[in-house]
Amino acid sequence: RILRLEPGQEDDPIQCSLIHVDLDTSPVFEAVSYVWGDATDKLRITCNDRRIKITRNLFHALTMFRYPDRTRDLWADALCINQFNLKERSSQVQLMSRIYSGAKAVLVWLGHEQ
């Protein structure tokens, strides 16, 4: 799955959708690398027209990485891997090297300036 991040300004709510892709077709996407942070510190976004919670660090990364005027296709583990399906999570973790090397770029989120 690839995350299609909808355009928006910094203060706009985050909206996205998950798109099923085949890595063998060489989809164009950027991978997001970030620290999960506190797993209990979560904020809400809208994904596939449903409200879901993601970690604060990923929320801020998506806020900063989205374009103001067009969609952006990203891969972020917390959203693109079904974290509740152990079998899928295990198989996807084995593909992470291929996912990161197949990305057009890897965007690194180190957090807000201190």
Features:
114 residues, alpha/beta, single chain, seven-stranded mixed beta sheet
Would you tell me the overall average pLDDT? Answer: 91
**What would you report as the Rg, rounded to the nearest angstrom?**
14 Å
User: What is the count of β-strands?
Assistant: 7
Shape: globular
Into which percentage range does the β-strand content fall?
Answer: 25-35%
- Helix fraction? 25-40%
Across the major sheet, the strand order is 5-4-2-1-6-3-7
Order of secondary-structure elements: EEEEEHEHHE
Largest sheet at a glance?
A: 7 strands, mixed
Q: Would you mind describing this structure in some detail?
A:
The structure is a single chain. The protein has 114 residues and is of the alpha/beta class. The protein has one domain. It is 27% helix and 31% strand. Strands 5-4-2-1-6-3-7 form a 7-stranded mixed β-sheet. The longest helix has 17 residues. The radius of gyration is 14 Å and the shape is globular.
Write the layout of secondary structure elements.
Blueprint: E1 2-5, E2 15-19, E3 30-34, E4 42-47, E5 50-55, H1 56-65, E6 72-75, H2 77-80, H3 86-102, E7 105-109
Parallel strand pairs: 2-4, 3-6, 3-7
Antiparallel strand pairs: 1-2, 1-6, 4-5
